[in-house]
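Teaching assistant's notes for section 4

Start the section by putting this record on the projector. Ask students to predict, before seeing the second block, whether Delta(14)-sterol reductase LBR will look compact or extended. Collect guesses on the board.
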Amino acid sequence: MPSRKFADGEVVMGRWPGSVLYYEVQVTSYDDVAHLYTVKYKDGTELALKESDIRSQSSFKHRKSQSSSSSPSRRSSSRSRSRSRSPGRPAKGRRRSASQSREHKDDKKKTVQETSLALPVFVLFKPSENNTKRYNGEPESTEKNDTSCIILEQKLKPDLEMKHVLEQYSLRSRKDDKKKEEIYSEKKTFVAVKPIEKVPSKTKEMEFGGRIGTFMMIFFLPATVFYLLLMCKQDDPSLLNFPPLPALESLWEWRVFGVFVLWFFLQAVFYLLPIGKVVEGLPLSNGRKLQYRINGFYAFLLTAAAIGVLLYFQFELHYLYEHFMQFAVSAAAFSLALSIYLYVRSLKAPEEELAPGGNSGYFIYDFFIGHELNPRIGSFDLKYFCELRPGLIGWVVINLAMLLAEMKIHNLSVPSLSMILVNSFQLLYVVDALWNEEAVLTTMDITHDGFGFMLAFGDLVWVPFVYSLQAFYLVGHPTAITWPVAAAITVLNCIGYYIFRSANSQKNNFRRNPADPTLANLKFIPTATGKGLLVTGWWGFVRHPNYLGDIIMALAWSLPCGFNHILPYFYVIYFICLLVHREARDEHHCKQKYGLAWERYCQRVPYRIFPYIY
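Reveal the predicted structure now:
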């Protein structure tokens, strides 16, 4: 095993990924498995670098050529020389040997190369600006309403960077054209640097209570789902009225399990249809970009057509309501089997394909979080498919089944106003998610979390069976509301949806094209990564305005159920806890990624989700 060269806490020069620029960094840790150093830049950014991309500070000091370091006898004789003669020039009649000439030339080339490495900041920004502060997340003006900084960094090429440095900081006389041409020919071999391939290191910071917490959640999450469904079936769904446990044989039916499996593979067929555009996701740790087919909305339309055909032939869709608990058990069993398959296959996955958050080396933790980041069978991305298809579209189908069950059980010719509101609000939410399917590629679920029990159970069980809790509750506990109350709840939902959609659109448009003229009025804080942190619009109001809109909509979904019981408000209570926890995770990752720029952003936007509260 090779020994490490640099110690923890040592200040060295680290190369910025994908460029020839070196910056002063401090070594914080070393991964013995991946042989990578974790270094911290001055602005707080932490990156993993190979040993070959780190150099000691002493290697950047200018070296003197051999010709200038003459012997004592030569120094004494040089005093009698003419002042116009260069100290490195040999006396008349003396010819320098060929080996000395080559050494002189090579040594001076190294000096030019080292000089270009030691002056990287002038390449990234205009010399007239306070470049050091801007790189460290401290620009002259904290806010900017143009995108020149970001566009400049994206367009600069290594060759142009080297040319700029050589023109301004070359130690060579500009009259020496021949030697200058030699330098330009030599620099091609110097700047042709292969981008760093980051290999995920072991997960050091474990979430959700670590091994013990994740072990308990594997049992706690299914128990919570079953408890909520049993409570909704009771005439008095009070918290103190614990429901009786059903017989185990009543929880399982192979026919129900077969229907669920059929539903899963029907959505898989819709996913594989060659319709919709194909887009690229964000770059992975090795620089590769995966391709995704965006056809979730088409899958929704095909599903709606299939449901319409079933209803036309008088298929009893309220069958879902009558066997709701059995469907939940079937979905839980399927998600558990899928999670086991995902973990087993992840053991053979290459190191660079593992999830940064699920590579702890502990079975329970990695099984829960997800060991592999993007498990695929050919071009079929399992995580991306489960994120929006079976569970989200299934949520709408379940709501429709509850609406029909309400009409049948209570002998209604039309659904109740409360049921219509719940179905309409949640249908809008699902259609919006499928219409803006491409936006999910930038979420933490896709870019950071692996695909394990947490996401498998969440996508296939928690979303369809917990998010439909209001509709399920209204079947057994009808609630009458007046038209003015319905209008007020509708306005509240529209406000939440407007905040949610406009904030997400603002963020996504800025990520895709910061130079969009429609975004010219937005101000941002530049960061060392080349990205900007918005400080105007919704993102200058609170740090997570999309979460605020989500919570307002969640409240609007629960209000049609009245105030007789707290059970239908479980969703909004859970959602607040979920988003507060997710916000804490976002804060942690952003602080590591953006360093001092993120601290400046937090000072500019002090409230996280709720303005003037939190």
